[in-house]
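Researcher: I'd like a candidate sequence for this fold, 174 residues long. If you have to choose between options at a position, lean toward the conservative one.
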């Protein structure tokens, strides 16, 4: 699995897929559900990044396994990625549903840093739906909970889009 991730970072997608599939096969032979789930998640990410519809199947399995293992990070990650898939397909209702579920999982488990990501995605969908008041509210909450600099930059970019959309150009460009 780690070798697959290394190849992925090097943009060698063919080798990345090969090693991720090998890792999944080994995890399945060992009947290690946590490892299987991790491998499925990494395969899902690969498929998602290459616009392969197999991503949905992988993340659905991660979601089921994560719930069975009582692992909130697996559950959150799967819900978030399924939301991303629906958002990319333009199905904002389904995307919002999955992002809201992801946020509930995070809040229930007290994982504030991860809540920033769910709030960001919810704000992004609201922005795409031209629900600017909601987009602003969720995006500001996301910024408040954010601890990673790169994430803060993306949230601030989103906030600028919202402010521009509502005509508050001073805030949009400061």
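Model: Candidate sequence:
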């Amino acid at each position: 699995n780690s070798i697959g991730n290394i190849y992925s970072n090097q943009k060698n997608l063919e080798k990345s897929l090969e090693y991720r599939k090998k890792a999944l096969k080994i995890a399945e032979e060992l009947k290690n559900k946590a490892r299987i789930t991790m491998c499925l998640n990494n395969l899902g990410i690969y498929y998602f990044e290459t616009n392969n519809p197999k991503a949905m199947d992988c993340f659905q399995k991660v979601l089921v396994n994560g719930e069975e293992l009582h692992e909130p990070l697996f559950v959150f990650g799967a819900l978030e990625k399924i939301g991303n898939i629906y958002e990319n397909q333009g199905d904002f209702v389904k995307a919002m549903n999955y992002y809201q579920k992801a946020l509930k999982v995070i809040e229930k488990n007290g994982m504030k840093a991860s809540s920033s990501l769910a709030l960001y995605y919810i704000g992004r969908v609201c922005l795409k739906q031209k629900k600017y008041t909601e987009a602003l509210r969720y995006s500001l909450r996301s910024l408040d909970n954010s601890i990673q600099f790169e994430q803060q930059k993306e949230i601030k970019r989103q906030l600028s889009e919202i402010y521009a959309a509502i005509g508050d150009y001073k805030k949009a460009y400061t």
